[in-house]
Amino acid sequence: MQRILSSQLPAHVGETVTIAGWIHRRRLLKSVAFLIVRDAAGLTQVVVTDAAVRGQVEALTEETVVEVVGTVVANATAPAGVELTGPTVRPLGPPAVPPPFDLYRPALAATLPTQLDHAPVALRHPTRSAALRVSAAAVAGFRAALDARDFTEIHTPKVVASSTESGANVFALDWFGRPAYLAQSPQFYKQLMVGVFERVYEVGPVFRAEPHDTVRHLAQYTSLDAELGFVADHRDVMAVLRDTLAVMLGTVADRAGGAVSALGLDLPEVPAEIPAVHFTEALTIAGAPADEPDLAPAHERALGEWARAEHGSEFLFVTGYPMAKRPFYTHPDPARPAYSNGFDLLFRGVELVTGGQRLHRYDDYLAALAARGEPVEPYAGYVDAFRHGMPPHGGFAIGLERFVARVVGAANVREVTAFPRDLHRLTP
Amino acid sequence: MQRILSSQLPAHVGETVTIAGWIHRRRLLKSVAFLIVRDAAGLTQVVVTDAAVRGQVEALTEETVVEVVGTVVANATAPAGVELTGPTVRPLGPPAVPPPFDLYRPALAATLPTQLDHAPVALRHPTRSAALRVSAAAVAGFRAALDARDFTEIHTPKVVASSTESGANVFALDWFGRPAYLAQSPQFYKQLMVGVFERVYEVGPVFRAEPHDTVRHLAQYTSLDAELGFVADHRDVMAVLRDTLAVMLGTVADRAGGAVSALGLDLPEVPAEIPAVHFTEALTIAGAPADEPDLAPAHERALGEWARAEHGSEFLFVTGYPMAKRPFYTHPDPARPAYSNGFDLLFRGVELVTGGQRLHRYDDYLAALAARGEPVEPYAGYVDAFRHGMPPHGGFAIGLERFVARVVGAANVREVTAFPRDLHRLTP
C-alpha cells in the first residue's frame, strides 16, 4: 500500500492507509496510548488500544522511524481533524537514541549552541524547520521575480586569485600550489555577465573571514545577487529590488503558508513605491550631525520609525551614501560627485539590502582605483573587460539569512541557518 | 522613450522606437551602411543612409554600446523580418576596444584557451551564451521537477572540518587558524536533511582538487543534488531521477528554445521507463570479463549502443555496481551483499549521473567504516545523526556542466562553463 502524508489523511476518512515518519511523542494513558507520528507534512495522532501494539509502542523511543497502517477516523480534537485507529506499527530501523532535548515541546528548550551542536536533530523541531521553509520559499520567490523580468541565472567561481571586496576578511587557500581566496561576493562576475545577458542573478555561498562573533555575521552565507544593464541610474535598480522583495514575500505566503502560521508571522507589506530619502536628509531625520559619513544603528532605527510614522512603510530606501564609504566600483551621483548612486534598503530600521549603480567606463575604474591608492593589477581581469563595451548598470545583493531572520523575528542569523559557519564553528 | 528589445520589434512596425545594445557588426557599403546591434534577445539590423550618421557609425567600433532611435520597417531579408531605418545613434560609453576575436562570425575562431582567457567577451558570442542559457534552463527544470514532488531546497556548508568523499583531491584552507577543507559534495548534509524534510535538493558549487587536466574535469563545478527518504530501495530514486531529467529537458525546450535552435540541438527523449541492467549483465553485454570490478569507457560506449539498438533509448541505467567500487555510505543489495543498491545513468554511452540507496542505520555505518579500515572520528558529526532515527533513503547528483556539455555536444566542459577553474586556471 502506497504511503500517504499526514496532510492527505482528511481525504481518506474511513479507509485503511499507510503513513510513515518519526515518533514525535508517545502519551501512555491508562486505557489508551497515543502515538504522534511526524512526517514532512505535519503530525498524525495514532490511537492504540490493542495490548500487543501498546507493548510495542512502549518499547519504542522518540525519533524512531516507523510505518503505521490504520483506519482514518474523523476526530475534531486531533491534528487536522483526523486520527488513525486500529494500527499496526512497523519500525523502519532500530529504536532511536532520543535527542538531548525534547522535540515535541512547542519551543526548543536547549540553548542555541546546544541546538547548533546537534543541528541534524534540532532542525527537526517544527520551529527550526519552519524557518528553513520560509528561507526556501524566499529564494524561490527571488528567482521567480527575476525570471519573469528576463534575468538569466549564472554560476560563478567561488575561488579567485585576488579578493573581490577588500583585502580584509578573506579566507586564503592553496590552489595546486598557488595562493587563492574564497570569493567574498560574485560582484565582479555578475557585472561582467551583464555584458553577456544584460540581466543576471546568482544564488550562492559567499565567504567572509569575519573576526567578529555577532548575531548578524556568518563566515559563509547565501547571497542573492542581481545585476542589470541599460539602467538610467540606481533608481531603476531600486524598482527591480522593490518588485523582487514583493514577490519573495508573496512566495513565502504561498509556498510556506504552513510555516508562516506555525511561526505566527505577520509578513510585511511592500509598498507599491518604497519611500526614499537622500543620505543628507536621512542625517537630518535621524538627528545626526551633518558631517557624519555613515549611518549608525541608532540612526537606522530612528529612520525606520520615521518611515512607519510618515509613510506607513516598514521599508525605507536611503540613497546617495558618501562615495568615501562605498566600494571603488560605485558610480557617483553626476550632480554631486561626493555622493554615490548607491543605496541601502532599511527594513524595520535595520539594513537589509545594499545596492547601487556601478562604474561602466574603463577610465573611470582606473581613476577610482588611483584615487584610493589601489593598484590595478589585482583587478586587471575584471577592469579590462570594461574596455570592450559595457552599458550603464547596477545591482543589489540580499543576504538570505539576514532577510529570513528579520522576516521570522529571529534574534540570531544562526537560528535560520541549517549548519552555520563562524569564527568558532566548523561542525557539524 | 522606453527602450524595447530586438525581439519586440515585429510588434512595432511603422513606429519610432528606441533600442540599445552592442555594435555586433558594421557593413559599410557604397550607398548604405548596416549597423547590426546585439541585445539580450538577438540582433537588429539598422539601415544608415544619412551621411552624418554614417560618419558617426564609421568612427565607432564593434562592441561599443549604443542606443538607436529609428523607425521599424518590415523587411523579409532582415533578422526577424524587420529593420530600423532613419536612425539616430547615441553611444552609451566610449568606443570599445575590439575583442581579440570576431564575435560576429558564426563560429568563434579563437582556440578554447584564448576564449577562456578573454571569457568576459568570448561569452558574448551567441554560441557561448546559448550554451549558458541551456544551462540556466536545465537548472530551472531540476528545481521545478523536485518542487512539484515536495522537495525542499537547502543550502549547506562549503567549508568542512573533514573531507566528505575521500581523503584525496581536497582543497585545504586556513579557517581562523584551524585546518579546513572545501566540500567535495553536499552528500552528508543532504542525507542529514532527509531527517528534517524527507526530500531535499541543493544546487551549489563543489570542489575537487583534480590533478588531471581532462576535458571532463573541473576543480569547481555545479552539482545538482537530490536526496529522498522513505524509499523501498534505489529504484524509487531512479524513478525520481527519470522524471527530473524529463522536466529538465522539457524546460530547456521551453525556456531556452532560441538557444536550442541557434545551436541546432536535437534534444533527447527520456523514455517513460529508462531501461536498466544489472552490473553483471552489463559486463556480458559489453563483452567484458565477468570479474571486472567496474565499467571502462569502452564498455559504457558499447552499452550505449546496445540501449539504442535494443530499447531505442539514449539513456540506460546500470544498477548493482560492486560495493568495493562505491563509497562507504552505499547500501548493499540485501540479496547479494557484494553488489550495491547504487546505480549510474549512462547517456549516449557516457556516465551522466551517479546515485543509489544509502545506509540508514548507525551500526551499518560503523561496520562499513571498520570494513574499510577507516576511523569513525572524522565522520562522527555525520554518523552520530543516524542514531537518532533515519528512514531508508537515497539520492543522486548531476554534474551540471557535464550534463550541459552532453546536451549541446560540447567536447570540453569548459565550453559550457562561464569562468572555469582547473589545475591551471584561476582567472579570470
From TrEMBL, chains A, B:
Protein name (record): Aspartate--tRNA(Asp/Asn) ligase
Entry keyword annotation includes 4Fe-4S: no
Protein family (similarity comment): Belongs to the class-II aminoacyl-tRNA synthetase family. Type 2 subfamily.
Pfam family membership, one: tRNA-synt_2
Classification via PANTHER family: ASPARTATE--TRNA LIGASE, CYTOPLASMIC (PTHR43450:SF1), ASPARTYL-TRNA SYNTHETASE (PTHR43450)
GO terms for MF: aspartate-tRNA ligase activity; aspartate-tRNA(Asn) ligase activity; ATP binding; RNA binding
Residues that hold ATP according to the record: 208-210, 216-218, 351, 399-402
Catalytic activity of the protein: tRNA(Asx) + L-aspartate + ATP = L-aspartyl-tRNA(Asx) + AMP + diphosphate
Principal location class: cytoplasm
Domain Aminoacyl-transfer RNA synthetases class-II family profile: 142-428
Species in which this protein is naturally found: Micromonospora coxensis
Site feature Important for tRNA non-discrimination, where: 79
Binding site for L-aspartate: 165, 208, 354, 358
Region (Aspartate): 187-190
SUPFAM superfamilies: Class II aaRS and biotin synthetases (SSF55681), Nucleic acid-binding proteins (SSF50249)
Reported function: Aspartyl-tRNA synthetase with relaxed tRNA specificity since it is able to aspartylate not only its cognate tRNA(Asp) but also tRNA(Asn). Reaction proceeds in two steps: L-aspartate is first activated by ATP to form Asp-AMP and then transferred to the acceptor end of tRNA(Asp/Asn).
Subunit: Homodimer.
EC number: 6.1.1.23
Subcellular location: Cytoplasm
NCBIfam families: PRK05159.1
GO cellular component, one term: aminoacyl-tRNA synthetase multienzyme complex
Lineage: Bacteria, Bacillati, Actinomycetota, Actinomycetes, Micromonosporales
Keyword field: Aminoacyl-tRNA synthetase, ATP-binding, Cytoplasm, Ligase, Nucleotide-binding, Protein biosynthesis
Biological process per Gene Ontology, one example term: aspartyl-tRNA aminoacylation
EC class of the enzyme, as a word: ligase
